[in-house]
Amino acid sequence: MTCKEAEQMVMPYINDELTDRELEAFLDHVYSCKSCYEELEIYYTLYAGLAQLDSDEDGNQDMHSLLEEALYASDQRVRGRKLFHIYYALSQVLAMAALTAIIVTEILKL
């Protein structure tokens, strides 16, 4: 992913509009590119600050920590969905193997 592509994904990231693949690529890039991380931090700080102004929340929160928590949660979501897809595929293979074993066993009984 290029910096330009990552910069175009900042607002969709903040608005939770990225697909799992886009999110994974975005996170990989942001973690490895200081410039893009700083760009994300600026937008996130502005967005979170405006959200605090609209609510009755205390405005003394550490925006950097909030961003780190959001990035960590996003990373966990991507990893969790990957694991789900792996376990799902594995369960399908095991189910097919069990079904095949049952069919072969029944055929051999004939």
Short description:
By secondary structure, this protein is mainly alpha-helical.
Topology of this structure?
Blueprint: H1 3-8, H2 10-14, H3 20-32, H4 34-54, H5 63-109
Helix pairs in contact: 3-4, 3-5
Overview of the structural elements:
With 110 residues, the chain is mainly alpha-helical. The protein has a domain at 3-77. It has five helices and no strands. Helix 3 crosses helix 4 (34-54). It starts with a helix and ends with a helix. The mean pLDDT is 89.
List keywords for this structure.
110 residues, mainly alpha, 5 helices, 84% helix, elongated
Structural class: mainly alpha
Characterize the overall form: elongated
Low-confidence parts = none
Reading the helices and strands in chain order gives HHHHH
Helix amount, in percent? over 70%
Number of strands: 0
Kindly report how far apart the N and C termini lie: 59 Å
Q: Calculate the mean pLDDT score and round it.
A: 89
Count of alpha/pi helices: 5
Largest sheet: none
* Proportion in β-strands: under 5%
Q: What Rg, in angstroms, do the CA atoms define?
A: 22 Å
